[in-house]
Amino acid sequence: MQYLPIFTNLKGKAVLLVGGGHVALRKARTLLSAGAVLTVVSHQFEAEFYDWQQQQQARLIQGDFDDSQLPGHWLVLAATDDDAVNAAVHQAATARQIWANTVDDQEKCEFIFPSIIDRSPILVAISSGGTAPVLARRLREKLETLLPQHLGPLAELVGRFRGKVQQKLQGFAERRQFWEKVFNSNIVSLVQTQQLDAAETELAQSLSEHQTSKGEVYVVGAGPGDPELLTLKALQLMQQADVVVYDYLVSEPIMQLVRRDAELICVGKKAGAHSVAQEHTNQLLIDLALAGKKVCRLKGGDPFIFGRGAEEIEVLLPHQIPFQVVPGITAAAGCAAYAGIPLTHRDYAQAVQFVTGHCQKDGKEPDWHSLSRPNQTLVIYMGLMKSAHIQAQLLAAGRAATTPVAILENGTRPEQRVITGTLAQLADLIEQQQVQSPALLVIGEVVALQSKLAWYGKQPTAAVFAQPLASLA
């Protein structure tokens, strides 16, 4: 992060602007709209500067910049067409530890002006760190069309009630849940249609009738790793949760989308490493929910496909804890698609089976003869450690040694690796290539199509929610 985005209160604070041309005029308008007390130094001024001087909104100094003009100012802006003057302003300001901005000279900026979307008191600022200001402005124009004008009046309304809510509702989590309920209610529609008195009445009634919310558990599938494969509902609940209980398989880019102030608890399991016992995870969900927390149980892939989601929900039932289940793209579907492997194909496979490489607790083996049938695709989760055993059993059950196989490591992620070979080579490939979890094994005739259908990483991909830049104009 090159610049820390902050919002500064300039009301009543002295700001020095060096320059009186068109560029300086734009900066002056922004500063005055923020309530700054403006002093402008220049040999010539645009007409609007004189109007501000008459209105006592700005003080004009006609002449050269001198460092004796700096004391007492919070910010300094250099906006002349003379690089030497701008450099002198920046040097003098930084020597006095006054934050300086030099127009069109990123190296001489301690702060920069973002593109601003104004829905006061709601403000949205967009910055490219000074590298692409035109792009930032185009993004602002796009967002202007997405953010409704009633955001400002809505923020003013809830601002008037903030103190009342703090008095009645003691905990931060409960207050946040109250406001989320408000923003999902008819109050927003009333503000949008300019029925402000009715909206205020309904908000007051909602506060008077508010009751402490019960805890709830959201069992959410995070998909195989690419954050753009998240469902909209998954993202919404990740943003609403007070606590996020997550697994190791949830990728870091997805964790970055969780609410910033949510409590994060990792209960991941890794083969050969210390793992959180499932019983402990179950009890954790119960305790958090009974404490009134909104808990997002975030799982890689889909919670009902080798995700133990059903087990965790079952323990909630005796306590009458409300829950929701949000399916996710399971690893088999997501990773195979990103590898260019269709799980079914009318010429190669008319069926697909998902199995786990972990044996049942009683050691009972799966039906290897059923898994070894030709013209079906076998996807094995958590099969790395048992790969030699899996290979031997499938061969013994009659699967051809030449059956194509693929090992999909970190599927759908930028570091995705696809290793192909035959069933006879499976265990050796895993050892030779030092494959690490998370990884899937795909066995079947459809793997032969991988070399033709592979696409991920070989060509530019468009973000799901993105639009061509031309549409931002």
UniProtKB/TrEMBL annotation:
Every copy of the Sirohaem synthase dimerisation domain together lies at 150-207
Gene3D superfamilies in the record? Cobalt-precorrin-4 Transmethylase, Domain 1 (3.40.1010.10), Methyltransferase, Cobalt-precorrin-4 Transmethylase, Domain 2 (3.30.950.10), NAD(P)-binding Rossmann-like Domain (3.40.50.720), Sirohaem synthase, dimerisation domain (1.10.8.210), Siroheme synthase, domain 2 (3.30.160.110)
- Name the positions where S-adenosyl-L-methionine binds: 224, 300-302, 305, 330-331, 382, 411
Enzymatic reactions: precorrin-2 + NAD(+) = sirohydrochlorin + NADH + 2 H(+); uroporphyrinogen III + 2 S-adenosyl-L-methionine = precorrin-2 + 2 S-adenosyl-L-homocysteine + H(+); siroheme + 2 H(+) = sirohydrochlorin + Fe(2+)
Q: Name one Pfam family in it.
A: Sirohm_synth_M
Known EC number: 2.1.1.107, 1.3.1.76, 4.99.1.4
Family affiliation = Belongs to the precorrin methyltransferase family. In the N-terminal section; belongs to the precorrin-2 dehydrogenase / sirohydrochlorin ferrochelatase family.
- Sites binding NAD(+) sit at 22-23, 43-44
Q: Which residues carry this modification: Phosphoserine?
A: 128
* InterPro entries, alphabetized: 4pyrrol_Mease (IPR000878), 4pyrrol_Methylase_sf (IPR035996), 4pyrrole_Mease_sub1 (IPR014777), 4pyrrole_Mease_sub2 (IPR014776), CobA/CysG_C (IPR006366), NAD(P)-bd_dom_sf (IPR036291), Siro_Cobalamin_biosynth (IPR050161), Sirohaem_synt_dimer_dom_sf (IPR037115)
Give the pathway annotation.
Porphyrin-containing compound metabolism; siroheme biosynthesis; siroheme from sirohydrochlorin: step 1/1; Cofactor biosynthesis; adenosylcobalamin biosynthesis; precorrin-2 from uroporphyrinogen III: step 1/1; Cofactor biosynthesis; adenosylcobalamin biosynthesis; sirohydrochlorin from precorrin-2: step 1/1; Porphyrin-containing compound metabolism; siroheme biosynthesis; sirohydrochlorin from precorrin-2: step 1/1
Protein name, entry field: Siroheme synthase
* GO terms assigned for molecular function: NAD binding; precorrin-2 dehydrogenase activity; sirohydrochlorin ferrochelatase activity; uroporphyrin-III C-methyltransferase activity
Which portions of the sequence form the region Precorrin-2 dehydrogenase / sirohydrochlorin ferrochelatase? Answer: 1-203
Q: Which residues form the Tetrapyrrole methylase domain?
A: 217-427
The lineage's top-level taxon is Bacteria
- Where do the record's region annotations for Uroporphyrinogen-III C-methyltransferase lie? 215-473
